[in-house]
Amino acid sequence: MERTSVRDTNTVPGKLAKSGALEAASYTTWFGSLEDYQKGGVELINDDPRHYAFSNVFEVAGMSAPYEQVAVGKNMEYVLECLRAEGRSPWRTAGHDQFVLCLDGEVRIELHQAGPDQLPAADLPGSVGLAGEPAGPRMGRITIRRGHQALLPAGAAYRFDATRTGVLVIQTIAGPDTRFRWAEICQTA
Question: pTM of the full predicted structure?
Answer without folding.
Answer: 0.78
